[in-house]
């Protein structure tokens, strides 16, 4: 079960990831000046998710982490998903029956 | 599971058999802690989503009172600090004491810059009566009510985030002291790695806060 | 102590006696004892509030306390009992003591964090206690908005801070358990050999980690809203009070399983030990714990059927509520089946097991009444609910807690207690409990609302019965306090394995030495391998 | 000891439905409780330990058994779910012709107003045999309307309109409780529901010179609050005409549509920016804090009365008036 010693990532990789994050930051600011209606939000979120994944995978070494750590990560996301989706199961269906408060 | 002739090391706590086991435990523990943290912010993200869905126009109007330049500036500062933090961990892993010190100091400097800018932004909101409460004033009366909720969410989220930054700075200070004493080596560097994970997590939260708060609608 | 003939072998209790050696200990066993003291204290505090409630309800008129005082009584009763007694009760005492021992580890993975969690718990407790002493808080343990944010003028913030802080204690404990169970198992202790106690603590820990932060943020937002009038939950400012209920129950429903799962783990151990037989359907009992923990996160809206939540969300929550009952059913049936062809003895821990099964049946099965939307409308916020949750929390979980304490007491203290008194207490608790809370089901269906200081006179007789029962119950709880204290100082020495049970914790002296085992254990058998020596296959 | 009640009175159409479900669940749960208790007892006696060193006989798990005792309870549980949901749906959907009564919770009293204008505090008079729909709001914190004899309950949530309905079946006086904790005198926020024979009810309704009926009062408010400046009946104002809106489906800017019910009307008045009617600008100011709960009810009653007004003639009686 013992993992071999830590993975040491090359500095070059960190630099590349950093530059990518920088570019994405400018990109996300840039696209807000383009009117895409509702899609602005999705583009912004998409970029943010992509940036977060870069940080998690490389800066936080998740790529080389044990399976268990990856499971922990995904589980926490899943549970945020439960919180949001079930709350919205209420909010999105309010008024659907056409009876006040039901 | 572990070899009985485990290497003995001053940093090995009595109840573990090997340093690997100890390091594995810390890593798992830290990630579990971050899972908790994520859910903690999750509650606020839910509030954010709900009110954004309810008050889309007010959200745009209120968001335009935030300064995209400083938001982006801070984003860059935090990303850079994440990079220097990763480098500090790298320095520890390769046993470079000098590297650790340099990169930890850089990370702290960037973190301080972030908080400085944040403080300036907060002061600006105070000046413009954009702090929720009886003194709240919003230029467009149609959106005043919902804008107040926007700023409530803004202050709650960025405030809790800033609190995490402050705690992170404290941890970095503690690491710096250790690094100067030469505590962390290629063999034993778990604390640097753990604080690193925490710091990156705080960065990730901001990566989401920035577009969600500063970049609503189109400019 | 002075009568001991031979010098006692060194154990975790006698290695050091100074106060400092206790307050700065990192030994999970000593921390368990620290927790035991804290928890007993808060139980007594909560119990005193309960007696206040029951005395007031002897008569329909509000003649003993002012309305406001009564409201503070049930609020502080609920807060003390839930956050400072029941949530930490089994995990932080028995769990803390036994999780490392059962898996053959020397300690929990993070001993310092373990100690920290006790301090955090005590600090949270002190905040809440301070709030109580400064005048109390009157929102109900649920802190519903906008009452808590805009109307109440009691110490909501102080109490909220206490609850918030104690939440971190819970998180740290859960984190410690998960890491320990993953990384510190003795050689040969594979997952399918883990005692069921470990499985149930593992499941409860998942909830602590993923649920607690959400209630923490909810309470924090309530405090902020009170202090700075931000409008997140205030309808006058455009916020939604029901959002608070979502956040609160997202945690607080799973939290009820934090309260009961460790108790179920205790019951699995005890049933095996006193039937001298492997638990029937080990895998099902183990996985049903995980099932309860996970599905438990999908049902919170069953507290909100009449809250103006959408009917469609209600449907979703209702159907899922019924699915979460199935893993509990699996457990009950498997315990029953374990008794089949067992070798059953009736020492006091086993008496508590029978008590648990009876009360959990009533409590759990009445949960099914509440899951039915059409029926819950009538009984929601009545004494039917009060009866339901006391049956599961007080009936079931405290029975399990007491059973576990009696079972592991010899291991923890190295002393025996009086079996006669123990049986007497168990019976008194059982009788007193049913007398207190069964009438409340009837009251609830009749329509007596909860949190009522005064009530219509026709409800009096049932309330008198309930108060009478509470008195008996109070005596039942006080008796063990006395004989346990006596046993701790004067009780007969306990052998290493008084019950002839399996499990690593019984293979080390009582009380255990500093790092739990004199020789590192190696596991070669599944849990509960009772019949192995005279196996007929 | 003669009159200790053990079972609540049944005084509405919902009572029998709820009690039927209740007895069904009682019998199922009693069966399972007895099953387990009896088995435990039999095993405990039959397999008691005979000598100190005895151990149990190993019995290995049986998959079939596990499946059986998971699936059977699951099926039964689904029946409970279905039944419970059916009863709840029936409770949630009031009949079209229900007589409406506006209900306001306020610490610590219940205020009712009939569409014909009569007000009551902590008392509610209703006729037997007529469906009654309560439209519920709150002035401060959350309360909850609870009439045990009718088996109905609904929270009064500030900022929202909720509702419940029932048909009383037995004349008499019944408890009315506030079931959601609302502060100091929560247990004093109680009253009575009087169920009367229809004729008696009409007399009661006629007694005590009623002020203007709610729709009329609302119409006056509509002018006083200057709503008319934007909402012209002929659709020439800056806002949409409100004639015929109630019960219709309104289309929103940015897609989507809403059924216009009481909850939507309230939202349009206190929170006009939330949903913008297609084709209009978000011009309407919020009236949050400017109209009281009761005025809100009158406005709503008025706008509802416009729904059924034929385009030309003004009918005298608003649709929501109690059936004779
Ligand atoms: C330890 C705590 C605990 C536990 C274990 C449970 C278990 C359950 N609870 Fe309970 N509950 C509370 C503590 C607990 N509850 C508290 C504190 C409240 C009120 C909070 C407040 O408002 O203050 C509450 C309130 C509450 C409500 C809200 C009521 C209301 O406010 O209107 C509901 C509604 O569905 C509910 C349902 C259930 C169900 C379905 C279970 C199930 O998990 C039970 C499962 C067990 C069984 C079913 C028994 C064993 C099974 C068999 C013998 C087989 C036969 C089974 C079938 C045929 C299905 N509970
Ligand atoms: C773990 C949780 C727990 C426990 C153990 C209890 C225990 C008891 N509860 Fe509690 N109760 C709650 C959780 C709990 N309760 C909650 C969450 C609420 C809801 C609150 C709300 O509405 O917000 C509630 C509400 C509640 C009510 C409803 C109040 C209302 O709605 O108006 C009532 C009424 O009878 C009641 C009674 C009791 C009684 C008689 C006990 C008895 O079991 C207590 C018996 C214990 C003792 C009597 C103390 C034992 C004595 C000693 C240990 C020795 C004493 C030593 C010294 C004094 C030095 N409880
Ligand atoms: Cu109003 Cu309780
Ligand atoms: Cu629940």
Q: How would you characterize this protein structure?
A:
Chain A is mainly α and 102 residues long. The longest helix of chain A has 25 residues. The radius of gyration of chain B is 21 Å and the shape is elongated. Helices cover 75% and strands 0% of the residues of chain B. Chain B has 219 residues and is an all-alpha fold. In chain B, helix 1 packs antiparallel against helix 5 and helix 4 runs antiparallel to helix 5. Chain C is mainly alpha-helical and 537 residues long. The termini of chain C are far apart. The model of chain C has no long low-confidence stretch (mean pLDDT 93). Chain D has a five-stranded mixed β-sheet with strand order 3-2-1-5-8, covered by helices on one side. A five-stranded mixed β-sheet of chain D has the order 4-10-9-6-7. By secondary structure, chain D is an alpha+beta fold. In chain D, helix 1 packs antiparallel against helix 2, helix 4 crosses helix 6 and helix 5 packs across helix 6. Chain D is 33% helix and 20% strand. Chains in contact: A-B, A-C, A-D, B-C, B-D, C-D. Chains C and D meet through helix 3, helix 5, helix 8, helix 9 and helix 10 of C and helix 1, helix 2, strand 7 and strand 9 of D. Bound molecules: heme-A (2 copies), dinuclear copper ion (CUA) and copper (II) ion. The site of one heme-A has 33 residues of chain C, from helix 2, helix 3, helix 13 and helix 15.
Q: What would a concise description of this structure say?
A:
The complex is a heterotetramer of chains A (102), B (219), C (537) and D (324). Chain B is an all-alpha fold and 219 residues long.
Our count of helices of chain A gives 3
How many extended strands of chain A?
0
Strand content of chain A: under 5%
Largest interface by Cβ-Cβ < 8 Å: C-D, 99 and 90 residues
Note the run of SSEs of chain B as H and E: HHHHHH
> What structural category characterises the helix and strand content of chain A?
mainly alpha
**What is the subunit arrangement here?**
heterotetramer
Based on secondary structure, the structural category of chain B is mainly alpha
Helix content of chain B: over 70%
Percent of residues in helices of chain A: 55-70%
Biggest sheet features of chain B: none
Name the shape of chain A in a single word.
Answer: flat
| Strand content range of chain B | under 5%
What is the rounded Rg of chain B?
A: 21 Å
Q: What bound compounds does this protein have?
A: heme-A, dinuclear copper ion, copper (II) ion
Average of pLDDT of chain A: 87
Per DSSP, the total helix count of chain B is 6
N- to C-terminal distance of chain B? 59 Å
């Amino acid at each position: 079960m013992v993992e071999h010693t830590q993975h040491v990532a090359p500095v070059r990789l960190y630099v590349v990831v950093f530059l990518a994050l920088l570019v994405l930051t400018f990109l996300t600011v840039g696209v807000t000046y383009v009117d895409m209606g509702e899609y602005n939000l999705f583009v912004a979120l998409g970029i943010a998710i992509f940036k977060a994944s870069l940080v998690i995978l490389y800066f936080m070494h998740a790529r080389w982490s044990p399976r268990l750590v990856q499971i922990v990560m995904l589980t926490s996301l899943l549970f945020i998903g439960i919180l949001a989706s079930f709350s919205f199961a209420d909010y999105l269906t309010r008024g659907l029956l056409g009876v006040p408060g039901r | 599971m572990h070899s009985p002739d485990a290497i003995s090391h001053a940093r090995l706590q009595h109840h573990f058999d090997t340093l690997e086991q100890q390091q594995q435990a810390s890593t798992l523990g830290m990630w579990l802690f971050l899972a908790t943290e994520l859910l903690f912010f999750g509650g606020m993200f839910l509030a954010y989503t709900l009110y954004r869905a309810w008050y889309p126009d007010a959200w745009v109007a209120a968001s335009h009172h935030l300064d995209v330049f400083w938001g982006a500036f801070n984003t860059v500062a935090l990303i850079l600090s994440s990079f220097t933090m990763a480098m500090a961990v790298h320095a520890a892993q390769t046993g470079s004491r000098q590297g650790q010190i340099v990169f930890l100091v850089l990370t702290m400097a960037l973190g301080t810059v972030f908080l400085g800018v944040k403080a300036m932004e907060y002061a600006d909101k105070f000046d413009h009566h954009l702090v929720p409460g009886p003194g709240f004033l919003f230029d467009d009366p149609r959106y005043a009510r919902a804008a107040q909720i926007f700023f409530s969410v803004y202050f709650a989220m960025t405030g809790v985030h800033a609190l995490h930054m402050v705690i992170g700075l404290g941890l970095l200070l503690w690491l710096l002291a250790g690094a100067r004493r030469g505590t962390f080596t290629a063999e034993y560097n778990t604390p640097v790695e753990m604080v690193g994970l925490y710091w990156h997590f705080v960065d990730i939260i901001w990566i989401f806060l920035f577009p969600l708060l500063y970049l609503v609608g189109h400019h | 102590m002075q009568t001991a003939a031979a010098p006692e072998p060194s154990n975790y209790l006698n290695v050091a006696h100074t106060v400092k050696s206790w307050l700065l200990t990192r030994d999970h066993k000593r921390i368990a004892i620290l927790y035991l003291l804290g928890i007993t204290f808060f139980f007594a505090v909560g119990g005193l509030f309960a007696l206040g409630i029951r005395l007031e309800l002897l008569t329909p008129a509000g003649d003993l306390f002012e309305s406001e005082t009564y409201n503070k009584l049930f609020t502080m009763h609920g807060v003390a009992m839930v956050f400072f007694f029941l949530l930490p009760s089994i995990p932080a005492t028995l769990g803390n003591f036994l999780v490392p021992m059962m898996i053959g580890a020397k300690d929990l993975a993070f001993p310092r964090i373990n100690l920290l969690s006790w301090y955090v718990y005590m600090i949270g407790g002190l905040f809440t206690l301070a709030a109580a002493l400064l005048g109390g808080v009157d929102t109900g343990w649920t802190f519903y908005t906008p009452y808590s944010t805009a109307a109440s003028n009691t110490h909501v913030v102080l109490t909220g801070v206490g609850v918030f802080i104690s939440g971190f204690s819970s998180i740290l404990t859960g984190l410690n358990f998960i890491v320990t169970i993953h990384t510190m198992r003795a050689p040969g202790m594979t997952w399918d050999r883990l005692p069921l106690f470990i499985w149930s603590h593992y499941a409860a820990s998942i909830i602590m980690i993923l649920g607690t932060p959400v209630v923490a943020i909810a309470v924090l937002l309530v405090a902020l809203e009170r202090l700075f009038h931000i409008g997140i939950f205030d309808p006058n400012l455009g916020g939604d009070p029901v959002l608070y209920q979502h956040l609160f129950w997202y945690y607080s429903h799973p939290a009820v399983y934090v309260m009961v799962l460790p108790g179920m783990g205790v019951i699995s151990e005890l049933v095996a030990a006193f039937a001298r037989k492997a638990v029937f359907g080990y895998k099902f009992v183990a996985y049903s714990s995980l099932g309860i923990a996970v599905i438990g996160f999908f049902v919170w809206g069953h507290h909100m059927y009449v809250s103006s939540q959408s009917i469609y969300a209600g449907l979703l929550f209702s159907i899922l509520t019924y699915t979460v009952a199935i893993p509990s059913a699996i457990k009950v049936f498997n315990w029953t089946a374990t008794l089949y062809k067992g070798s059953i003895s009736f020492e006091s821990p086993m008496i508590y097991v029978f008590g648990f099964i009876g009360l959990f049946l009533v409590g759990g099965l009445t949960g099914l009444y509440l899951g039915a939307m059409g029926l819950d409308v009538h009984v929601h916020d009545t004494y039917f609910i009060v009866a339901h949750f006391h049956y599961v929390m007080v009936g079931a979980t405290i029975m399990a807690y007491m059973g576990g304490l009696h079972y592991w007491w010899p291991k923890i203290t190295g002393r025996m207690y009086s079996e006669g008194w123990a049986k007497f207490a168990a019976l008194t608790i059982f009788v007193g409990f049913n007398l207190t809370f069964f009438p409340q089901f009837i009251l609830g269906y009749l329509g007596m609302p909860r949190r009522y200081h005064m009530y219509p006179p026709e409800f009096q007789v049932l309330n008198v019965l309930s108060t009478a029962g509470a008195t008996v119950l109070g005596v039942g709880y006080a008796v063990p306090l006395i004989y346990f204290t006596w046993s701790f100082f004067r009780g007969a020495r306990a052998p290493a394995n008084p019950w002839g049970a399996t499990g690593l914790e019984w293979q080390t002296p009582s009380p255990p030495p500093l790092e739990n085992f004199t020789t590192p254990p190696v596991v070669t058998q599944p849990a509960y391998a009772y019949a192995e020596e005279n196996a007929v296959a | 000891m003669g009159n200790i009640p053990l079972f609540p009175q049944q005084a509405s159409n919902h009572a029998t439905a709820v009690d039927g479900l209740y007895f069904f669940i009682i019998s199922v749960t009693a069966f399972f409780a007895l099953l387990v208790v009896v088995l435990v007892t039999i095993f405990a006696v039959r397999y008691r330990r005979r000598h100190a060193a005895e151990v149990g006989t190993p019995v290995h798990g049986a998959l079939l058994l596990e499946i059986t005792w998971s699936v059977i309870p699951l099926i039964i549980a689904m029946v409970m779910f279905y039944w419970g949901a059916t009863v709840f749906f029936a409770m949630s959907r009031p009949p079209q012709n229900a007589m409406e009564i506006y209900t306001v919770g306020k610490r610590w009293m219940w205020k009712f107003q009939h569409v014909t204008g009569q007000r009551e505090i902590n008392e509610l008079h209703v006729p037997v045999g007529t469906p009654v729909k309560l439209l519920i709001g709150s002035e401060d914190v959350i309360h909850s309307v609870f009439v045990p004899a009718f088996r109905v309950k609904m929270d009064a949530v500030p900022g929202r309109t909720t509702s419940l309905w029932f048909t009383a079946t037995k004349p008499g006086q019944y408890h009315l409780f506030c079931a959601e904790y609302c502060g100091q005198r929560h247990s004093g926020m109680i009253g009575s529901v009087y169920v009367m024979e229809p004729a008696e009810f009409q007399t009661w309704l006629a007694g005590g010179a009623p002020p203007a009926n709610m729709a009329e009062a609302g119409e006056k408010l509509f002018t006083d609050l200057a709503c008319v400046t934007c909402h012209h009946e002929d659709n020439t104002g800056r806002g949409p005409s409100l004639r015929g809106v109630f019960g219709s489906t309104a289309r929103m800017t940015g897609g989507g549509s809403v059924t216009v019910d009481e909850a939507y009307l309230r939202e349009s008045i206190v929170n006009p920016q939330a949903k913008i009617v297609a084709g209009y600008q978000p011009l309407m100011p919020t009236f949050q804090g400017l109209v009281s709960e009761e005025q809100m009810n009158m406005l709503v009653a008025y706008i509802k009365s416009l729904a059924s007004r034929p385009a030309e003639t003004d009918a005298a009686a608003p649709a929501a008036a109690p059936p004779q």
